[in-house]
Write the structure tokens for this entry.
Amino acid sequence: QKEVEQNSGPLSVPEGAIASLNCTYSDRGSQSFFWYRQYSGKSPELIMSIYSNGDKEDGRFTAQLNKASQYVSLLIRDSQPSDSATYLCAVNPEYGNKLVFGAGTILRVKS
Amino acid sequence: NAGVTQTPKFRILKIGQSMTLQCTQDMNHNYMYWYRQDPGMGLKLIYYSVGAGITDKGEVPNGYNVSRSTTEDFPLRLELAAPSQTSVYFCASSYSLLELNNEQFFGPGTRLTVL
């Protein structure tokens, strides 16, 4: 069983719309959660981290965490063509000092 | 700060050859990691280190070896290259995953092809 699951996409949204990216994880004791953005041919870069249930907002990005449902999401408001990338969800398991990554969701923002 | 640097950027190996992928960070981070990323896939952890002299296996360690003699350097060794090791390799570092608001910083990657 995969530990971190993401829909591979591609998710296509028009410019200016809200993009919603979802991630589920299997380790109920997981403590910290991260969203990385990866442009084609480039290395991942962190865009959001979240540790507590609820929402965390940073500019156009909002991360949402629901530990009871083992679900974390990323909302991108006012999507721009420059947001087109692969978004990787990463989870820190309860007894680990390393991250487990999902396979990523490809986002395409069409102008 | 250069951050995390990796060499080489690209390499083509023949089956059975050996090579070392270099990784250096100048942020005084304790934790360092090696990942591989196959096309359309996420990152798979190969090895990691929590400090100089300490290394541990990740999810896919077979066919690889690492060492950590200094805080800055974390080389990855392929002893007998196989086509299954064709991938993009990323090195990353972090101060500590136990610190809030911490993140892993990634190097630019090494694209390796084994023919």
